[in-house]
Amino acid sequence: MIYDIFIAPFVDFDFMRGGLVGTLALALGATPVGVFLLLRRMSLMGDAVSHAILPGAALGYLACGLSLGAMTAGGIIAGLVVVFAAGLVARASNLKEDASLAAFYLLSLAAGITIVSQSGGNIDLLRLLFGSVIALDNASLLLIATIASISLFGMALLLRPLTLECLDPTFLRAVSRMSPLAHYGFLLLAVLNLVSGFHALGTLMAVGIMILPAASARLWARRLSTMLALAVGLAFVAGVAGLLLSFHINVPAGPAIILVCGLTYFISLLAAPGGLIALHWPGRQHLSS
Question: Residue 127, Cβ neighbours under 10 Å: how many?
Fold first, then answer.
């Protein structure tokens, strides 16, 4: 019974094994970036950039069809353009960066949907918006794994300045020239991982596997190393659970994965040491433990 429910789908079906590899790579590459987005109070930036990827990917799709290279290159270029354009607008006007990002991502989402709709393919539009993690081919898996490897290497190089910037960005700018490198290098890693998540989960949900496990881990852990490890573990468990739900009850795999991430977040919000029960009824949590 346990074998049939939890193990047999991954043993018997190639598409389930592909989905498992893809979610593992996303958990390793994207979720640590989500932890730092959360700690730097940039969670909504991730959502904005994930929407901003769509017009670039849509132009790649319109020019070359479902070409992995064209859609990836288009998505990366569009994401970087929006990130840097929002930064320039924030520096040249009275708007803060989050406001300019919101404006750019709304325009990008509308432009992307308009571009894809010109092809007349509603199924392709749904795939761009919601992804298809159980339909990842070998080339897509290789791309996601490559971005995850680049992300892990980049995070290792930028870990110290990123950690210091989370604590005191003014001090980092005063004592080190690494502040711009850490900031823009981190934004590049965020865009790369959102493009990676876009191929598996679509532009509307790519940010979910970055932010929701990170938010859950933040409620359980105080040390950064523990938070990173827990976030990756929660993301992978949610990926496995979402794939199994998709297989057994015939629901879309991407939304199922994000829903499991959301369920984990709400459980953490209630039961974790940093959650609602501990904050508002500390005596009750003590008795239950």
Answer: 17
